[in-house]
Amino acid sequence: MKTVALISGGKDSCFNMMCCVAEGHEILALANLRPGKGSNEELDSYMFQTVGHTAIDLYAEAMGLPLYVQTITGTSLATGKDYIPQEGDEVEDLYKLLQAVKDDMDIEGVSVGAIQSDYQRVRVENVCQRLGLVVLSFLWRRDQEELLREMISCGVKAKIIKVAAMGLKPDKHLGLELSEILPHMLEMRSKYGLNVCGEGGEYETFVFDCPLFQQRISIDKMEPVIHSKDAFAPVGYLTLKSCSLQSKPEPQGNMSLKEQVLSLPLLTSSNYLERMNQAGLLTNQQADGEGPDLLLPSNEGGGDLELPRVFMCVPDVPLTGSEPPVFRCDKKMFQVSGVRAIVGKDVDVATATESAMITLKECLGNHSLAMEDIVSISLYVGNMSNYATINSIYNRFYEINPPVRVCVEANLPRNVVLQMDCQGYVKSDIGAEGGHTSHTVGRQVLHVQALSHWAPANIGPYSQALMVDGKLYMAGIVPLVPATLQPVEGGIGVQSLLALTHVQSVMSAIAPNCRLSYCPLVTCYIIRPEYTEICHKQWEKALKTSMTDSDQLLDKQSRMNPCIQYVQVSALPKASLVEWHVLAWPELQDYEISEVRQAKHCENHCIQAVAQRSVDNPTFFSCHITVEVTNFESLQRAEKVNLPGHMVDMFCRVWHQSFPLVTNRIAETIPLVKIFFSPTIYDFNLLHKYFAKAVATSCSSHDMPEPVLSLVPVSGLGSRKQILAWCQ
């Protein structure tokens, strides 16, 4: 895409331009923010590097590109984790700068050299979202030692022009080049925990040559300035007094600029998988038994191989869209299910979607709650071709930091465009045990919108992860190459493991010590039943990779054993073959986990249940129940009708066994329940009635509150015999 590059003169913004070129983006212009005339060269800015700005004009000339400049008139006013536009904030100077570029040039993307700073990322993404621009941030969350070595190997020539950290001395380190400072920074990382790339403000640089430069910048005269004589961490910088341009040899051959950059040893989307292979994260899938017949989606209907091959077309149901959602709220959490968008005469997809979103908003409003109180939404669409339309309506109901979301195509009745369920937290109780009373303080959100090499940006109005009350809620993750947001090629094995790698990357970004083994229940959505075995192999591989040495030493009884539910659906976002969805308990290492297992074997069916809970924190509870039919031919209608009741009764029993000394506080923590079923076995309307009756009867007899159920019709479940799955 046509791109403007935000530059400070430093190595990071320069190298990110090279990464943009490698990905096929075209740099049309440069943009820089600088102090006003008469101001200090080095401003105390949270956002922008200003030291070295006097030579930026030559920087643009060296690249042969136009330079747009904006004077920094604002200051750092809105300094919280999130950013809401505020007049007088320096971020609004960035908005004016990019607006000016966009008015002059047909740009689509913005190159940004951020590596680790969420503060900068959030603000740049806010500005770009308002302007309809895509952020290109290919250095984001890269390993800093690897990244600095890569810059050096790729010919980025830069001098240290500012130091401001313990272990760095102005008289010794100013003026050094990257290759000279690297060994010292590795030593200081070990000694003081410094960032190798200077991402914590330890040092700043000025690039005088790189493969993108048509001419080389010669720094003819520079003057040191001591800003602070602190005995432990003195601060000093270089003023570039005189610089000039020098000619460079013409590149050999007739290679384009992109070809020249691609010949360098930098990370690109094309060698992304190769590097993951070298790191041991991906392996040759043919060795794992995957054949070429498993590389493409199937057009066949049906998911249970022992059932008749029936095209999953569920007939219309007598719904108008005015049916009230199911709502439950306790002192801390709330759950909602049964929000549906119904099409009909004069009601199209957009209108039905908007009506459903309004229904959800009004349902919450009736209980003094708001859309921003939701932490997690499950969105089931009847046809994935409506994904863009649904997203455009959905997006209107959120301004910043939307909840996490999983989205799959379900076998909904033909007149149902979408079905939603959600859960969230009551404002006054968020983080109450930690002493917080503020809604915004109690939740931590990861909402990355930039293209990078880290993990996929959100492809809809949702956040990747949200942590609240000690629980980490995650969006559904599909196997996209982060730099392109296209599904990775190579089949289900590669896709499954790549998506799991993304899951771990997202978890680590918001909760550094969290691992896959901290997930009590995992849902794996696949589009073909034969993918189950391969995905399970890749899960076991990823789980082992994510474990620490101390995890490996624990026996299975001493650590949590994640339950996995495989669900076959007809389509996934971006035509992916697999989507992984997890909930994690990041504080698991601080808790003792108790597990309850029960099974009920009957003549024609078997019900199995696993419940996991924290002995120390009763709000940490998860339950997984499955119903498998051992003999379809002998399964009687009466038995089918009674199975939901048996399932609910099993839940009540494991609940009471998990909490033998149940209190009112514990009884109020029942999480939302998702029940996956095949419409070839159960009628959509009748199953709702069966479960409603079963919940009312069983919960009353067991003296416990009724959980909120969300019934989801799908193509198939984890095995050929599985017909119902309770996921909580």
Describe the overall structure.
With 728 residues, the chain is an alpha+beta fold. It is built from 18 helices and 28 strands. Strands 15-16-17-22-20-21 form a six-stranded mixed sheet. Strands 23-24-25-28-26-27 form a six-stranded mixed sheet, covered by helices on one side. Strands 3-2-1-4-5 form a five-stranded parallel sheet, with helices on both faces. A hairpin with a 3-residue loop joins strand 10 (326-329) and strand 11 (333-342). Helix 3 (91-104) packs parallel to helix 4. The chain starts with a strand and ends with a strand. Mean pLDDT is 87; it is low at 284-312 and 429-441.
The main sheet comes to: 6 strands, mixed
Averaged pLDDT: 87
Total DSSP E strands: 28
Total of DSSP H or I helical runs spanning 4+ residues:
18
Which outline best applies? elongated
Helix share bin: 25-40%
Poorly predicted ranges: 284-312, 429-441
Radius of gyration: 28 Å
Give the strand line-up of the largest sheet: 15-16-17-22-20-21
Roughly how many Å apart are the termini? Answer: 43 Å
**Helix-strand makeup class:** alpha+beta
Keywords: ATP-binding, Ligase, Nucleotide-binding
Family: Belongs to the Diphthine--ammonia ligase family.
Pfam families: Diphthami_syn_2, Ribonuc_L-PSP
Catalytic activity: diphthine-[translation elongation factor 2] + NH4(+) + ATP = diphthamide-[translation elongation factor 2] + AMP + diphosphate + H(+)
